[in-house]
């Protein structure tokens, strides 16, 4: 027999016979669903009358009936936990009222005192209340609560309780509590993908922020429209001439609010200084993210930027005039790393002497306050200020391969207290490239699109559990990112943002900004410049002055060395030290002796070799090549008929003499500038 649905049966009943028996059958059928409450009232009355015959004036029966009443009411409340709150409360009140009347009727009689009146008035009222509830349940009005319940049931959270939603422009936030003892916040995190599927939204549009004080409560955030689909072109810095302590604007969130990042700490805001990791796969937009951050840094009045870029400043060349120190990969980067290590203790000592526990904007000004003086008598010292320092390591994977995966560990652990912020940019911050200690010391991260397997290398696990998935973008959405950093509300961590885009139209604005920074930006204080020069020598020259080339070295040629045609110097710079009037030197023993594999030439004596080696070190120092090793002397060895093993031994001897210092990389030595060594 084929089953019929309720609407079909209802239609059959309406079309039934119109005689007395047909009408009676129809009314009886319609009344059947409403009879149980009335039958219940009648049953309670009969039980009260029968109970009074047996237990009237019985103390033991009174105790038993009272306990039964309490237990029955509690059981009703407990069993109703899976229903709606209103139904649970209605059931508990009905049971409590009925059991209380039954207890009184059994002990005193159903007609004693007001019991009969309570029964005649309260019984029908209770039955009618359930009839009304049943009528309303037949045609329920669509409500947000019911739709939410249906959605949660689909994703395995049927018993979760969802609170009043807060609706903002393009953002809906609703408190959520899963079933106590049965589910946790982890279950909600695992269901985010299914929720996004049920709402037909991208995975990144649904996030969940757990309550730190509860394992079953949190906030569900839904962003229905992706406001990041259209890129916004960079039009200039957000705060030209402001302080580096003020927020840096590098883009916007998916709800349109600005994407902000702070580098220095703020004791009043309880915010620590930070280092930043910029991570993302090829084509994810790391270059634009870096340009957003660098242009913001260069637009501030109290900060220095040191940049290492093995790509020869491919993306950053328009900004070079405003950068205090720009180093290519290889030896220049090695010198910069060693200089940063020397700068940190020098800056920390200066801050300590001037009673600063961390770098503040006041540090960049001349020290005219008696609260921050280094004089023992307590008077204002008038010392030059110390700007904030940002050390930027672009394409850091090359540096890490050359210098070791822990080259930044000491810097990252110590630099924040010295007013130095380290920024490391690379594609894949995996543990085989960067030491775990270094990664743990980089509290801030700009995570762009990546391989789904690399998400855990960039973002904390809690942020991924809350719905952040940069692996969903890959390189298909350049500039999309997640930002995790001190000063940002943690509920914002799983919210995607997008950096501003740099196009060919941005180049001229970048050049104008670099020119502004060259004239108005901070200059290195004596402490920072002195510490850097003591290690890097001529490799560190500071920001080029207007009219200089971007390397910081003047290119003018002395007039006496120019010929009349102005084509250039008459003498080759390599032969400039030769006196044309001097006689040629006499032949020396060995000048004509052939050396295996080489043309006949002079083999220097041990004393000459040492002198030539010292000259080579001086030449390296003059060129700013401050970190050397045996491979840097290969051409020199061929020229002077010396072996590489001789150079290795001589490097070690020079280290014992104080002319060289070992670095973290085996076989590499840092040249101690001649004046410093003296």
How does this model look, in words?
- The structure is a single chain.
- The chain has 21 helices and 18 strands.
- With 678 residues, the chain is α/β, with parallel strands linked by helices.
- The protein starts with 5 loop residues before the first helix and ends with a helix.
Task: Name the overall outline.
Answer: elongated
Distance between the termini: 109 Å
Give the structural class.
alpha/beta
CATH topology of the largest domain: Rossmann fold
Strand order of the largest sheet: 7-6-15-14-13-8-12-11-9-10
CATH superfamily of the largest domain: P-loop containing nucleotide triphosphate hydrolases
**DSSP strand count:** 18
Share of residues in strands: 5-15%
Look at the structure and give the mean pLDDT: 83
Please estimate the helix content.
25-40%
- Provide the CATH architecture of the largest domain: 3-Layer(aba) Sandwich
The number of helical elements comes to: 21
Top CATH class of the largest domain? Alpha Beta
| Rg for CA atoms | 41 Å
Overall number of domains: 4
Mind summarizing the main beta sheet?
Answer: 10 strands, mixed
The poorly predicted ranges are: 140-145, 550-571, 587-600
Write the layout of secondary structure elements.
Elements: H1 6-14, H2 20-31, H3 35-55, H4 59-79, H5 85-108, H6 115-138, H7 144-154, E1 161-162, E2 166-168, E3 171-177, H8 185-199, E4 206-210, E5 217-222, E6 248-253, E7 258-261, E8 276-279, H9 286-298, E9 303-308, E10 325-327, H10 331-353, E11 388-393, H11 396-403, H12 409-414, E12 420-426, H13 436-440, E13 444-448, H14 455-458, H15 461-465, E14 480-484, E15 497-499, H16 506-520, H17 526-536, H18 606-622, E16 627-628, H19 634-640, H20 644-657, E17 660-662, E18 669-671, H21 674-677
Parallel strand pairs: 8-12, 8-13, 9-10, 9-11, 11-12
Antiparallel strand pairs: 1-3, 2-3, 3-5, 4-5, 6-7, 6-15, 13-14, 14-15, 16-18, 17-18
Keywords: ATP-binding, Membrane, Nucleotide-binding, Transmembrane, Transmembrane helix
Biased composition (Acidic residues): 572-591
Transmembrane segments: 59-80, 92-112
